[in-house]
Design a protein that fits this description.
96 residues, mainly alpha, 4 helices, elongated, Tc1-like transposase DDE domain-containing protein, nucleic acid binding, RNaseH_sf
């Protein structure tokens, strides 16, 4: 209650079926990793063969370290725009 009283823009999570909240559950459209970063990581290691999970993890970690901080910041900054589009689409399909 304190959060709702002090932060009018607070988006509540699903509490129950009686009080569903407004936060879209598990939306890849609102997760910077899903809508931006995984594609960058995938492109960085595409076509390579890995013999072990450890090799794959190491390659992904190296690719992560090569991502420019401006790319990460831009992906996160894009979140509000994507959230507005999601709200306008009433939680349905949208394109950005």
């Amino acid at each position: 209650n304190w959060i709702r009283d002090n932060f009018p823009d607070f988006i509540s999570v699903n509490i129950s079926k009686k009080h569903p909240g407004q936060w879209p559950p598990n939306s890849p459209d609102l997760n910077p990793l899903d809508y931006a970063i995984w594609g960058i990581l995938e492109a960085a290691i595409y076509g390579r063969k890995f013999r072990t999970i450890e090799e794959l993890k190491a390659a992904l970690q190296e690719a992560w370290e090569r991502i420019d901080l401006n790319v990460l910041a831009s992906s996160v900054d894009n979140w509000r725009k994507r959230l507005r589009a999601c709200v306008q689409a009433n939680g349905g399909y949208f394109e950005i």
